[in-house]
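step: validate -> pass
step: tokenize input -> pass
step: predict -> running
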Amino acid sequence: MKAAAVLQQALLASRLAHAYLLTGGDPATRLQLAEKVAAALNCIAPQEGRPCGNCRSCRQVALGNHPDVHYLRPEGKSIKIEQVRQLEARLSLEACQGGAKVVIVTAAEDFTTEAANCLLKTLEEPPEDTYFFLLAARGEQLLPTIRSRCQELAMEEAGTIGAAGAAYWQRICMADLLALFQEILPEMEQEEDLEGVLAGLAIACRDSLVWQLTGEEKLLFTAQIKEINAWDLPALVRCYRAITKARRALQKNANRRLTLEVLLLDLQAQLRKGLHLGG
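step: predict -> pass
step: emit ->
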């Protein structure tokens, strides 16, 4: 079962573990999932384990300024013990808005040994209604003691997600969008993991940009992107923004068909603006 589905079921059953280690995938997708759960935990009107996306709490999480969602990021090259001690002091207080307190560690592999051991004590005896999400590319990069205190969930690998989105991306880049509009919309609407497909589209778009700018295959998540005649750079930037807007709309439970219609119209608009397909 996918990590997102596991967490949604745990929310529905009120059986969320106090600490999760999210590994694999790409950093943005790991962070997005952790923030989605943080929003659901504090949402005033969650729907089947999903945040409503419209209440004050959901908007605060989306903007990164919810007072009970704490981020632990490297200062310089590492997460230091002083940062963990400051976090513990904040967690000892009551939740500002009466909901759950959530800690998101964006690069858990960057703990110093001292900081990791300091956090271990909190993971062993977490404050009430406090949940931890440690994000890392690979679980083995963490101390075994930290890893053993978390329920580990593996995200889909970026290359896999990118490959799924790349198939759509190739069709979007190569085809006549006026004809493709009618063909592709019903197909995408029926995708079980539409968020994963849109994540793949975003990765494919990003890879197209990176390939055109650098020509470095080692920087790509999806190597086959270099074989696609993608749009020129200004169009790629605008398309990336359009895809990101669609993903955010779906996170707020927007209508799937309407979201896809807007997305494909946005993609079409790039041609109307005179932006051409690259050769």
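step: describe -> The beta strands are 19-23, 69-72, 101-105, 130-136, 151-154.
step: cleanup -> pass
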